[in-house]
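Backbone-to-sequence.
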């Protein structure tokens, strides 16, 4: 699937100027969201983000060509078009696709930073503080005499990625060149070149424009000196810096760095606005001294490695693993385990046999994988291993938990090693032990428990490095107060609780807790904090403070780093790779799926710490706030090897460690693979000739095929060189089949317009005199490498081959099939030559003889005409000539005995047409119980044209159910291999074929369930899940209410009363709509339930309806059964929402997170907060000590304003009849210590409760991480929705909670309406949010 590119732009006041980064600086914020089918990074930070791992998005004139559209929307579309046109494979496309490998890249960035980071603006300008103001630099472009034309622009990445395009294999040649220009002010030329200097055997020179290249700045470039004489297609890559030296204070020298791929089109590269001319020509500045300017150029030429032709084995000695879709996490783990030689040797020594199959044996699959990693020259596939896990294709596109995979794999291998020579290897390598203890402080009592571990999970959050994590791991917890420890014979005691290590394993696997569950936000989050890890880890530090008293202190626990496994991305997806030192030398290697590259220590360690990184300041002399961005690539697993054991673990593994049967098997596989490769390489020299004979027709018709004559994939084929003469090929046929050359006659097959495939004509003598290649070209219009022939062989009375009869234009070759209605069998009986002028009646006796019937048996003849898209088999008139019936060479005649009338009713398919119709539509369907969707329950042979009633009737008969209407069927999703979310409606499809189609694929699986009532009756009912909150008990029980769709909310309440226990007999219930801890609606009793959606929001029933007694409420019949307090509201009383909340740090501001159960409260005129708090405390039954810690705040638009006890609450709430989550409420701030309610499973839309402030939040699925602010921007969503024949355009402003009314949002961050994709586009156009600006309009 092509990635999807969406952009939205917040324009500033000025239009952009061509070639000037000032114009981009005027755009305060740009947001780009890219939906990818493969894992990618997520990045956003303070409205600016850097994306170093993205491919180069802009080059040449794409940005330059953007003019200044007056309309913001035109500007948006221009940017989107420009980005789409230069992004490899990026297309503007609907992002709402349901794919599990799907991952979203969401980026917010300032155009100025974007320009800097991609070379449009110098990314690493290093200049010391200047006493005078500096103007903003302009974009990095090559020089041009004509500034009006589009100029090339290069993407210069600040942080180099480790792809092979820019990965140096060796240290690049570099040189510093100094150019002293005397009499600088007297230069009269527009351009001025330096002398030629050589770096990396290439000739270079510096080019300057002393008066500026059509700008009021000095322009300076690096130029390829001999570009005009270099051969066609030349290219070279260089990193370089250009500088103007300050001859008074060298620290004020101006230096700018960049990099470029030089070629014939772009033979120079540099900076058009290098520095202002006014500063350069001012002698007091120090750049021009004695009319002399000094320029420096530092050039490093790097080797450019072609991405596609890169050979990992040749460059590094190692090969990678192929990614099956989303198996990069597994690949990184397998590479780590493979490069522990002791582990690899143990795997090789596991007993397997030559009869084992790799896909059914994990040990054999792992042995095979390790062998190929050791001896292959190219990357290795992992399909055999994943199949041995029991994974299907769908599982390979799902990212599994790495730690769980590691543990399961080790447990499987440990189990397989039992009773073998390698038993205990897993424990010897990876198993360590720690001691959990609880020690009483005041009495002599201590409880200990020894536990083993294969890996350790270390906290990242709140820890700066590994040692801090170990400190936290062994941190002593005090059990006191309400949390005292109950000691045997001593009762409750103050105690200390902790963990100490008894021993560490030789191979220490550390899982860094980069992914944690955030209880405040009720979701998983990734911790990108900086976390350092040393290349040598000393766990004996500080006199062994991590060790228990029982630990063996003679063992030195000094470890050296072996592997760093990295995750790049966010919590919703990303990419995994590993940095490994296979021999513990100083050389690191990066194993990134198929590609292996050499890396330095800094790349493997420091750059994987995570945290934030600052971009170098362009003007360090000014007090500019440094631009920081979060690094989303960081280590998540570390492997250390103990120094004292490394010689044992990093051992030699060679072929003698591999079982002989395994070597033989794998060498044979390698030879077969090489044969296939060679076969493929030589395929253009050969032609495949497929020869069908009568024997093939007899073998296949009625068994493998029923229509046409033969399956050519199952006939004998010859691989013949194209230059071989056809006469020589006939000799090959004679050797193979024993048919002399003179008795062979070959017919060419032809595909007819009705899509049938029949022998068309015999080869002519002239054609047989040609070569095989020439004949194939003549006969094959599709130009494939195959030639299909039918070999006609005539047999004499002695069944020996004889010469074929002479064929004239009058002769027709026909093929005959015989049908037996009683046995329901169709078979091939032979072929005949007939005269086109003759009639079928003339050959009846011959046909009876072929069929073994009596000579006078009455038979019926049918012509098999076609079978796609429907069967056409017509009765043949015995007395009409073959010419009149349009019979020709290769036609098929089916015949059968004329059935007696009394037998027609006994036969299911009495004639040839009905039987062929049956065969054509025959479908074997695998039925599975919806409760066990992975297991086949039974199979039925059905017809594709069976109706809905036919299918459910057969299913009911199969399972012994009397009433077929109680069967409900569900179709199969061919992509997820799961049932579709929506079942098939009663008679909702016409035929079985409609049930089995899923997009462009056809399945053979259906799911069934048995209902307690007939499906037509059930479809007339509405099923609602209602969470009932008891008035006096702290419990929530979910009830399923099933009522007719025309029922009302009042009917739901009456039904619920029969199922629940009320606090008192006269208690009344009300029904609320609650979404992420906020009340959105109170349902009036007379509202129809048909349109109520409980799939995404919680329906809450509780005692005591609380609606204000206003004219509006009375008109809507909302005041029925209201408590006295709320019925008797005074004219100045208010009914307000009260919500629980906490605050936490967001991207650049504090964010409010709601939790707990919301409720209504009546406040009276003049009532102070202290009085209101007393009533709230009584209502919630919170102890005084705890309630004293709570804070109260008035919240409007998500912004808290804290209240004092003396404040009059009434004055804060001026508006009435308010139930919107974006409006005002009284907030209670306190920690969320409440247990999750039982209905929490229904709260699966909470991630969309908060409004989105930028597109990265919208597409990235981080709705709840953004806070509501009047500066959030003007959010425009247009959603084209088909509703009752109308196309409605729904426009929402400010807060996305309106979207919940349309079913527009789903948990994955993709827009949906039910199960149908919907189109969403989000634009941030600046301004302030205001609910009154909401627009809604409809178009017919």
């Amino acid at each position: 699937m092509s990635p999807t590119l969406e952009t939205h732009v917040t324009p500033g006041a000025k239009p952009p100027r061509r070639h000037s980064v000032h114009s981009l600086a005027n755009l305060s914020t740009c947001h780009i969201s890219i939906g990818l089918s493969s894992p990618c990074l997520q990045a956003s930070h303070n409205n600016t983000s850097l994306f170093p791992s993205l491919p180069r998005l802009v080059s040449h004139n794409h940005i330059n060509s953007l003019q200044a559209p007056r309309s913001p929307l035109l500007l948006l579309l221009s940017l989107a078009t420009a980005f789409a046109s230069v992004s490899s494979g990026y297309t503007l496309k609907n992002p709402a696709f349901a794919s599990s490998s799907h991952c979203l890249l969401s980026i917010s960035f300032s155009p100025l930073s974007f320009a800097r980071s991609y070379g449009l603006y110098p990314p690493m300008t290093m200049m010391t503080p200047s006493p005078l103001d500096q103007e903003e630099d302009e974009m990095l472009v090559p020089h041009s005499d004509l500034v009006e034309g589009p100029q090339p622009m290069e993407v210069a990445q600040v942080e180099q990625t480790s792809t092979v395009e820019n990965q140096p294999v060796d240290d690049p040649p570099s040189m510093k060149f100094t150019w002293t220009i005397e009499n600088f002010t007297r230069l009269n030329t527009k351009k001025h070149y330096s002398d030629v200097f050589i770096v990396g055997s290439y000739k270079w020179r510096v080019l300057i424009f002393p008066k500026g290249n059509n700008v009021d700045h000095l322009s300076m470039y690096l130029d390829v000196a001999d570009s005009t004489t270099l051969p066609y297609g030349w290219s070279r890559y260089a990193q370089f810096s250009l500088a103007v030296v300050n001859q008074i204070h060298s620290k004020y020298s101006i230096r700018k760095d960049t990099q470029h791929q030089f070629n014939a089109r772009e033979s120079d590269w540099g900076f058009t606005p290098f520095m202002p001319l006014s500063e350069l020509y001012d002698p007091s500045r120090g750049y021009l001294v004695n009319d002399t300017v000094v320029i420096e150029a530092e050039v490093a030429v790097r080797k450019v490695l072609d991405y596609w032709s890169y050979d990992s084995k040749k460059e590094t000695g190692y090969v990678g693993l192929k990614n099956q879709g989303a198996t990069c996490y597994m690949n990184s783990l397998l590479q780590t385990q493979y490069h522990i030689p002791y582990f690899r040797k143990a795997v090789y020594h596991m007993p397997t046999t030559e009869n084992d199959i790799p896909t059914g044996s994990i040990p054999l699959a792992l042995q095979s994988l390790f062998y190929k990693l050791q001896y292959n020259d190219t990357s290795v596939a992992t399909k055999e291993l994943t199949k041995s896990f029991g994974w299907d294709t769908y599982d390979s596109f799902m990212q599994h938990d790495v730690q769980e995979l590691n543990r399961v794999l080790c447990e499987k291998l440990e189990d397989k090693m039992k009773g073998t020579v390698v038993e205990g290897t897993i424990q010897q390598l990876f198993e360590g032990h720690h001691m959990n203890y609880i020690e009483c402080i005041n009495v002599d009592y201590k409880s200990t428990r020894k536990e083993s571990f294969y890996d350790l999970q270390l906290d990242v959050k709140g820890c700066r490095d590994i040692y801090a994590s170990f400190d936290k791991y062994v941190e002593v917890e005090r059990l006191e107060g309400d949390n005292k420890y109950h000691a045997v014979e001593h009762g409750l005691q103050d105690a200390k609780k902790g963990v100490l290590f008894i021993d560490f394993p030789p191979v220490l696997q550390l899982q860094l807790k980069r992914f944690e569950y955030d209880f405040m936000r009720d979701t998983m989050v990734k911790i990108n904090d900086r976390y350092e890890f040393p290349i040598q880890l000393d766990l004996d530090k500080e006199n062994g403070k991590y060790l228990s008293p029982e630990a063996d202190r003679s063992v030195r626990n000094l470890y050296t780093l072996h592997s760093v496994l990295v995750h790049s991305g966010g919590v919703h997806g990303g990419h995994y790779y590993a940095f490994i030192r296979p021999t513990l030398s100083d050389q690191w290697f990066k194993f990134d799926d198929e590609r292996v590259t050499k890396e330095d220590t800094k790349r493997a360690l420091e750059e994987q710490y995570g945290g934030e990184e600052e971009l170098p300041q362009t003007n360090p002399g000014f007090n500019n706030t440094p631009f920081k961005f979060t690094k989303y690539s960081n280590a998540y697993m570390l492997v250390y090897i103990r120094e004292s054991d490394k010689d044992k673990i990093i051992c030699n593994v060679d072929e003698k460690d591999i079982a002989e049967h395994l070597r033989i098997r794998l060498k044979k596989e390698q030879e077969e693979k090489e044969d296939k490769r060679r076969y493929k390489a030589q395929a253009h020299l050969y032609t495949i000739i497929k020869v069908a004979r009568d024997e093939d027709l007899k073998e296949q018709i009625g068994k493998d095929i029923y229509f046409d004559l033969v399956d050519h994939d199952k006939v004998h084929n010859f691989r013949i060189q194209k230059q071989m003469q056809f006469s020589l090929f006939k000799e090959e046929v004679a050797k193979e089949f024993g048919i002399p050359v003179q008795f062979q006659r070959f017919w060419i097959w032809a595909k007819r317009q009705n899509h049938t495939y029949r022998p068309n004509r015999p080869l002519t003598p002239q054609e047989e005199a040609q070569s095989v290649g020439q004949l194939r070209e003549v006969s094959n219009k599709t130009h494939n490498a195959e030639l299909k022939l039918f070999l006609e062989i005539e047999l004499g009375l002695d069944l020996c081959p004889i010469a074929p009869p002479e064929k004239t234009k009058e002769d027709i070759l026909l093929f005959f099939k015989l049908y037996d209605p009683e046995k329901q069998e169709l078979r091939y009986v032979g072929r005949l030559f007939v005269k086109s002028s003759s009639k079928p009646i003339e050959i009846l006796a011959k046909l009876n003889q072929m069929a073994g019937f009596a000579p006078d048996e009455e038979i019926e003849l049918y012509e098999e005409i076609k079978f796609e898209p429907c069967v056409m088999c017509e009765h043949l008139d015995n007395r009409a000539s073959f010419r009149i019936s349009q019979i020709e060479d290769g036609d098929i005649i089916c015949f059968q005995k004329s059935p007696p009338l009394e037998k027609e009713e006994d036969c299911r398919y009495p004639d040839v047409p009905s039987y062929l119709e049956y065969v054509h539509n025959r479908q074997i369907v695998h039925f599975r119980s919806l409760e066990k969707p992975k297991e086949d329950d039974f199979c039925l042979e059905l017809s594709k044209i069976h109706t809905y009633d036919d299918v459910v009737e057969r299913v009911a008969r199969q399972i012994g159910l009397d009433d077929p209407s109680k069967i409900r069927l569900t179709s199969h999703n061919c992509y997820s291999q799961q049932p579709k979310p929506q079942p098939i409606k009663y008679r909702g499809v016409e035929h079985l074929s409609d049930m089995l189609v899923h997009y462009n694929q056809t399945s053979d699986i259906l799911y069934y369930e048995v209902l307690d009532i007939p499906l037509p009756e059930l479809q007339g009912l509405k099923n609602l899940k209602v969470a009932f909150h008891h008035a006096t008990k702290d419990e929530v029980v979910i009830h399923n209410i099933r009522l007719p769709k025309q029922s009302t909310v009042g009917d739901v309440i009456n039904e619920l009363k029969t199922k629940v226990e009320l606090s008192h007999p006269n208690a009344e219930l009300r029904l609320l709509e609650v979404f992420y801890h906020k009340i959105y609606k109170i349902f009036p009793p007379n509202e129809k339930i048909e349109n109520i959606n409980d799939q995404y929001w919680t329906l809450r029933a509780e005692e005591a309806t609380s609606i204000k007694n206003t004219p509006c409420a009375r008109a809507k019949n909302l005041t029925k059964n209201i408590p006295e307090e709320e019925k008797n509201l005074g004219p100045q009383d208010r009914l307000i929402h009260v919500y629980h909340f906490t605050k936490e740090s967001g991207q650049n501001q504090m964010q409010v997170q709601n939790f707990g159960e919301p409720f209504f409260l009546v406040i009276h005129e003049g009532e102070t907060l202290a009085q209101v708090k007393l009533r709230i405390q009584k209502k919630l039954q919170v102890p005084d000590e705890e309630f004293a810690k709570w804070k109260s705040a008035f919240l409007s638009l998500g912004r808290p304003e804290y209240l004092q006890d003396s404040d009059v609450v009434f004055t804060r709430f001026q508006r009435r009849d308010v139930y919107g989550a974006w409006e005002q409420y009284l907030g209670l701030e306190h920690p969320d210590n409440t247990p999750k309610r039982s209905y929490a499973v229904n709260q699966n839309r909470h991630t969309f409760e908060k409004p989105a402030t930028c597109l990265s939040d919208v597409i990235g699925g981080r709705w709840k991480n953004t806070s509501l602010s009047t500066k959030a921007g003007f959010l425009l969503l247009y959603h084209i929705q088909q509703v009752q024949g109308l196309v409605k355009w729904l426009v929402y402003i400010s807060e996305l909670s309106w979207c919940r009314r349309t079913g527009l949002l789903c948990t994955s961050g993709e827009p949906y309406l039910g199960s149908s994709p919907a189109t969403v586009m989000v634009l941030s156009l600046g301004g302030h949010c205001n609910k009154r600006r909401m627009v809604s309009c409809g178009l017919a």
